[in-house]
Amino acid sequence: MSGAGNPLGYDYRDPRHVERYGKLVVRNPDGSTEGKHPRDADVDVMREIHEPAPLLRVIRAKRIDCSGGSESEVRKCTAIGCALWPYRMASNPFRVSRELTPEQREAGAARLAAARARGRQPSGARAGAQPIDGSAGTVRATNFSCTRSPHLRYLLTR
Question: Global pTM?
């Protein structure tokens, strides 16, 4: 069973569905049901159904599901009151591209040249964690590829 209402192609007729349902859904004493909070749910069971994916890709998949499986309908969507509407094209329109001043560009170029002169990669190769003050105990991570958050990068370099 796949199609517009089932973008993941999940087979609800699969005998394992009842078992998975029991692990991911709670039945209340009054007979109502509710999904477990994802942090409390069994991760292995969730992985049997859902592939981990970047959030914008998940939003895009939901928008395609909402639009009857048609990507062109996602583009044409006029439901501007929907919380996912701005993200329907798998991009964040609120993300402001960073504009560097000439001084910032020059400073960045100088840091890059100095890093290359020291013989290490400018983004800091995984092998390189450098002491902050020359002591053996305090180490600063030099590879920020694990995060794109400028705030987190700032905190890591403090």
Answer: 0.48
Q: Please report, to the nearest 10 degrees, the dihedral formed by the alpha carbons of residues 52, 55, 61, 67 taken in order.
A: 160
Backbone phi, psi, residue 129, to 5°: -120, 125
CA atoms within 13 A on the CB side of 84: 19
Domain spans of the chain, in order of start: 1-52, 102-157
Phi, psi of 130, deg, nearest 5: -105, 145
Give pLDDT tens digits along the chain (158 positions).
444 556 566 777 888 888 888 888 898 999 999 988 888 888 898 888 888 888 888 888 888 888 888 888 888 988 888 888 898 888 888 888 888 899 999 999 999 999 888 886 555 444 444 544 444 444 444 444 444 455 545 555 55
Sequence-separated (6 or more) residues with CB below 8 Å from residue 83? none
| Tokens of residue 127, six digits | 């092998």
